[in-house]
Structures are given as structure tokens and as C-alpha cells.
Design a protein that fits this description.
The structure is a single chain. This protein is of the alpha/beta class. The chain has 14 helices and eight strands. Strands 2-1-3-4 form a four-stranded parallel β-sheet, with helices on both faces. A four-stranded parallel β-sheet has the order 6-5-7-8. Helix 3 (36-46) crosses helix 8. It starts with a helix and ends with a helix.
Length: 294
Amino acid sequence: MSLRTILVFAAIVVLACAGCGNGSRSSRLDVVAAESAYGDIARQLGGDRVHVTSILTDPNADPHLFEPGLKNDLAVARSKVAIQNGLGYDAFMDKLEAAAPSGPSDELVVVADLLGVSGKDANPHLWYDVPRLPTLAAGIERALAKADPKGKKQYDAALARFDRSLAPLLSTVAAIRRAHAGTPIAYTEPVPGYLTDAAGLRNLAPSSFTRAIEDGTEPSAAAVAAMTKLVRDRKVRVLLYNSQAVSPITSRIREAAQAAGIPVVPVTETLPPGLTFQQWQTRQARALQAALAR
């Protein structure tokens, strides 16, 4: 047994003893989500029956540079339901699950598997796949109900409410598609790719640029030149910009777009504080809609 595993186990024992007199905490289903987007959905579906811990939560941090700590070890170790993205986006979860003294969580939801997305070139930002959000939520709800059968009726009702709450987001995306289908846009990396696809927009950003930015590597000079020319020549109507993973190169692309009078729409990978998942995604979709209408 590794030292890290021993420390996790010891901490769990201490927490368990400390919580013996706290019925409200110990009676709830422990859920851990790798990403705050999935954590918020689980929180809405679980209500007062669950205690949700999200690991990737900092809206100012680059998720690609994240390193989990002991607190995350503990959250995974005591969870009954774990939710992760898959596609290598949150590979740290596999390590945390393997290190848990009691083994993997009783119910594991891998969103990529749930949605049938695979392949090394697949876009991992699956929480932007607006049309498939009901499928995603249903998969999380099934895991909650399986881990806590007594709460199934409550989880079912919450899932129905969640699906209804998606109406503003879905209608905004549909309105963009009706008014702007085929409109050329670009993004600095494919964070909003599923959203722009659902809206019928045409991304012209060279994959040689966006994939390098996504992977945290330096795009080739040719890729940077092609991306810069795209915005300077006003070949696109909008630039979607990952404001959470900024580099000197992406900053220059944003500045070039602004200089050319192209609207820049910031997007993030992590749920901003104080917003629900639906509010966050609807705000971003409406910002895109407004930018296209300019």
C-alpha cells in the first residue's frame, strides 16, 4: 500500500469519526464530479439527498494543468457515485479511483461512454453538447437512483424539472440556427465546438491551430499565420475565445479580431461561481446570438 493510500485511509477514518454525530451529512449520498458542470447537474438532480464535491472548480485556472491533491483523494475515496468526462480530459480521476482504499465508487458515470463518443480526435468538451444534455442528465440520474434506490422518485421528478429548465438554452440555440445557419465563425480551441455545431455555424479555424492550443503545445508558424489572416481579413463573423486558458498566441488572435471589428465571445470550461449550469450555458449562447446579430 502506497503512502498516499495510507494517508487517504487515515483521513477517511478521522472524517468518519468526526461525522458520527452529524446525521445530516452522513445520511446523504456522497457524489464526486471531476468537472463542476457535471457536479452542478448532479446537485440539481440529487437535491437534499446528495452531497456533491466537484474537483475542477476554479474559473481562473487552466483545467489542462490541474493536479489533484489529498482533498480530492478523500472526495473520491468516500464517494458512492463518481462522474467523469472521459476522453483523457480528466485522466486524474482514474488515478484517484485506483488509489481509493475501498476501490472505485459504486456507480461510475463516464460521460463519453454514456454519449458514445470515442477516438483520439474527439472533442472532449461534452457538456457543451446542448441537444444531448437530457441524455447526459438521465445517465447521472440513473446512477443516483441505483446507488440510492429509496430516492428514485425524488430523482425522477428532479430529472423532469431539469429537462424543462433547458428550454431557454435549447430555444436560443435553435434561434441561432434559424437565423445564422452556415455563418462562418472561429474559435481559439474547440471548447464550444458542440454548441456551434448544434447552432449550424461553420468553424473556419484551422485544426492545426486549435488542436495545438487544446493540447497546450505551440502551434506552427503556418497555423498561427492562417488563424491571424482569418480574423484580419474578416473571414469570420465571430471569434469564440477560451478566456480560461489564455496564452500569448491566443491573446494576439483576440487582439487581431478586435482590431478588425470582429466580436469576441468569451467561453469557459468551468462553471462560474453563483450560476447554475443552465444559466451559464444560456448566457454564453445568448452572447453568441447577440454577437452574430451585430
